[in-house]
Amino acid sequence: MGAGQSRSSNVLVVPQANAALDQLKYEVAQELGISIPQDGYYGNMATRDTGAIGGHITRRLVQIAEQQLAGQFK
User: Fold this and answer.
1) For residue 60, which of 9, 34, 23 has the smallest C-alpha distance?
2) Is 65 within 8 Å of 41 (Cβ atoms)?
């Protein structure tokens, strides 16, 4: 697998969201002080670090969804 490729079987419902999610990944990693490998290979990263990034991304996405839902029901 080359840089930027993933073995994930997840398929985005909105493919255009891929760039935004990738940007979010880098923002969260920077906030946590974790460097993401430039070659896109995560095999040398600690599971704890990748899990922390994923967990914070999930929290952020839930927060965004909650804000949008709250705005719909005002």
Assistant:
1) 23
2) no
pLDDT digits 0-9 by tens, 1-47:
455 555 667 787 888 888 899 999 999 999 999 999 989 898 999 99
Residue pair 33/68 in contact by the 8 Å Cβ criterion: no
Q: Which residue has the tokens 């290979």?
A: 41
Residue from 39, 29, 28 nearest 61 by CA: 28
Distance CA 44, CA 37 (A): 9
For the whole model, what pTM was predicted?
A: 0.72
Element holding 59 (H helix, E strand): helix 47-72
pLDDT at 74: 63
